[in-house]
Input
Amino acid sequence: MIPFEFDYYKPATIQEATEAYCQLEAAGKEPVYYGGGSELISMARLGNLHFGSVIDIKAIPECKVLEYDRDNQLVLGSALTLSEICESKQFPLLEKTAGRIADHTMQCKITLGGNLASTILYRETVLPLLVADSRITIAGKDGIRDFPISRIFDKRLNLPKGSFVVRVSTEKGVVGSPYFHIKKTRNEKIDYPLITVAGIKTSGRLRIAFSGLLPYPFRSIKVENILNEFDDETVCAMEVVNFLSDKILSDINGSSEYRKFELKNTIINVLETMKDV
Amino acid sequence: MFCLKGKSLITINVNEEDYELLIRPSDILLDTLRNQLGLTGAKPGCNNGDCGTCTVLVNGWPVKSCLMLTAEAVGKKITTVEGLKAAPIQKAFIEQFAFQCGYCTSGFLMVCHALAGIHPDPPDIVIDEWLQSNICRCTSYEEIGTAIRTVLDGKIE
Amino acid sequence: MGSIGVGKTVIRKEAWEKVTGQAKYTDDFISNHILTAQMVTSTYAHAKIQNIDISSASSLPGVKAVLTGEDYPVLFGQLIEDHPPLARDKVRYYGEPVALVVADSAFTAAKAAAMIHVLYEPLPVINSPLQAVDTNAPLVHEKMIMYQIVKEDIYPNYDTNICDQKKIRKGDAEKAFEQCDVIVEAAFHLPQSDHIAMETRSAQARIDASGTVYIKSASQSPFSIKKIISKIFHLDQSKVIVEVPFVGGGFGGKAPVQLEILAYIASAAVGGRAVRLTNSRENDIVSSPCRMGLEAKLKLGASKDGMLQSVQMKYLVDTGAYSDIGPTLTKAIIVDCTGPYKIDNVHCDAFCVYTNHPYVTSYRGFSHASSAFCIERMMDKLAQKLNMDPAELRYKNALCPGCTSPTQVKITSSNFGNLNSCILKLKEIINWSEGTRMKVEENIIRAKGMACLWKTSNSPTDAVSGVFLTFNPDGTINLNCGCVEYGPSMKTTAAQILSEKLKMDINHISVNMDVNTKYSPEHWKTVASMTTYMLGRAVLRAAEDVIRQLTSIAAVALHCPREDLEVAEEKVYVRHDPSLFLPFKELVHGYKFLNGNAVFGPILGQGSFIMNDLNILDQETGKGKSGPFWTVGAQAVEIEYNKKDYTYRFIKAATVIDAGRVLNPKMAEGLIKGGMCMGLGLGSRESFSYDEEARVLDTSLRTYKVMHFGETPEYLVSFIETPQIDAPYHARGIAEHGIIGIPAALGNALSLAAQAEFDELPLVPETIWRMKTGGIL
Output
């Protein structure tokens, strides 16, 4: 039960959505875009979030696409549920990553765009997109624009006010790259990560992105350089640990020391499994 | 554009029947099912999407109704445990002693029913993934696993 | 498809209601007229309440009342009356109810609750039982001396945080240690955790024009609710009527009374209108009572042949902010403190201490899952030091007829069963002889650990049960009893026992699934694995009562002596000529002669039961009898441990219980397996963590983790049947026991696998990593 009232809008087109946002904003109706809604509802119930209107983007056709476009880009609509993405089996690394977010039933509700825009610090769906150099298409009052993910995602999705993610596009070659995904939790499979890594190997180089380690998900070129430069797995892992060391989270799921241990093991594990790929 | 401003009249389809209801746009589907339709089979267990006792089917897929707005259900087909018509999984749960207190049962039944419909021959890992969405505090889960497998194996009429 | 009697698998009577959504639980009873109450809870664990501003909340349209602790300055408690329904003057734990809003809808109630502002002045917190017993520790209850003590065997230490102390003095422990060849010592730390019944606690109340109070509640103790509410608010017990429909899991957490009192004062504040109060999951975890924490120090000595000689123990039970059942949890520890082993010299001190943690109550296994962890880890430590097989050590020392318990109760085959048979059977099913620690591949170790268990009831010495039987004109029976159906299938068990006694089809016995204190005979509480014993005895007496009546009527009708008559298959027949019989339907509503004359009347059967040879334990020595029997068993856990990343997974969990007699095999197996699953959760993941201000951090199921599907091992369950002579069809209680030894067996398996001593719970990989590496990368 949400202890406040708001209005509900379900636009059928991108334009309707952005116009509704502008009008509601101007009218003081504190609009928010609404995807799966699980996070908005749970935060609103606990009084941690307030809004005056929601704009549900699930009826916008562009937000539900799941196809390759003419440029051989895999296009995923932001309102696709994690389950729809997994069942489609189009993007193996994203499938693996999404399949470990919350639980299966929740994956039938959580959307790609919702997870990317989440305020909870993990946002694990961004990891495959970061390493795949995906492009993110957003819509706002200035129309529809397209950004490389590195431009628009730094720690969190930095959307211009009033805009929302329409779709995510990823090059076919990258989508099919050899990949890895490791998620470590305290002791229960369905939990927030102590550490999640996701990455690919492309043109002989490893790319890697992290969640759970710092208070935000990130891809680090410096870490990738370390991974690709050292021969000895343990030396390499310790280099990565030392590089990230002073920023690593400590919370009820695990201390920073333990996360470092998990990071070290995970890096060694990644290097070993990806060595001959 | 479909919109609900303040208390509004909507129609939702639950268990193959249309219901016209007056709701707030902020109403949660679980509360509407229970308080307005008297369908109390879906249970509140955490209202946070963590336990699965409120699971219903939306167009055949399991969804935690505690994290869904009633407004979102417009145009969808909602199935609750009351809408199961002698589904094999119900009998399997009884025969396998797959419940004790019965409070999580509706949610588990809905997940199992959806799974059997969508993936009639799933590998074990898929069964695990689907059923990990729910918590049972009485049984050991083994009984629930046996129940869904007897249904998937067609060992129950 | 009729089924008669005990010993075979019977589907629970309410099965179809539960798979169709028709089974109604407390909060499923919703009407348009009912008001909703919501609590406002403390944001501090220990603080003075300086001011509560309810003005804006009270003036919100739809708000019918706002209550604070000042409105009902009463105290309640089942042992010590130390607990205000809403905090007064100060709060003692994070999540404590401080105000209650009553409104026309949940929506308005939540809105109003958010508008209540409480001003606190923080006080220093007691964040562990050890802190609680520090000299100069701040007091959680400054005026303990003013509290009413309800039960005679509570021994508080005023002006400290100790609300009760229990002792065992048997033999001379100190002297016996001098004779020991081997001594082991260890300290144990077991945190609080929570029941997590899937249905959160929920209560409704209304008061009618005559002043009669109606409570509907998700409770294991409807009759306690009646007594406590009538006592606090000075009402005749006949004016408090409690109804309990299906309950969605209890595990002991729904045995105490809390929300019912709040619902009552809420209703009273709005002129008796019906009010519902249901916990959010967050409140259910933190505001309502949880599972005890425990700190312990043990010293155990043996001679070199492995015979236990002496034990010394000190326990601190973390009862949290209020005592609730804490003193009885403490008593239960001392009663069974040695584990099911023969130790002639015992020195045990157990203290029940207040802290600023959430208050605690009964939990599946009562305090045994905690105390068993301590003693069973000690047994493995001792076995290691003696270089003896841990199973052998347990077998050698198992209690047997002729021994006495720590409280000096004589052990008999009937009151104890056969632990050694359980140990032998366990070794067989878990394949103990293949080895308990094996390398299965690089870095992977497979290990087995075991633990024994025993538990008795610790019920009041005058706990009661009762049964009424009425007949329908067609000869079918209605069984009316006061036990609550919250999962373990007690109603079906009652029907099975009646069916066995009357040799009649169980499908022709209907049992009330709900309890209503107005119509149902009192059953103490549906707790302590005592229902089969207590209710079963009452059922048998009621059955004898109707048999006597049936045969008396039939003797007249069939013109034969009563003693020649038998009852079976819903008939009364002549033993030496079964063709002479009368069906129940011709007897149960009186007997009508051919000419129309009728005699006798409807048969009304009744049976009642009271515990009869229990007593209060001696304050100094602990001597006395606190339960009618024990249930004993042996358990094992097999794991695969990964030496590289310090993780492990469950392979097998096994239990052998001496059930006396298994009444409903598949149900019995399910109860044991469910208990094991919960025990694995306690062992591997469940616990409260607190911040430095004693605030619980795991307040939702997002962070408080329980076992899930697919994470569980293969379960092995086996039963030994050593008759308990005084029990219904010789059956012991078994509902709690699956949990008791599992955390210990896991601790033993993991200690063996990782070759480190794990004396705390839960055993998460980080704990193992820290223990093995000292936390160094």
User: Anything to note?
Assistant: Chain B has two domains: 8-80, 84-152.
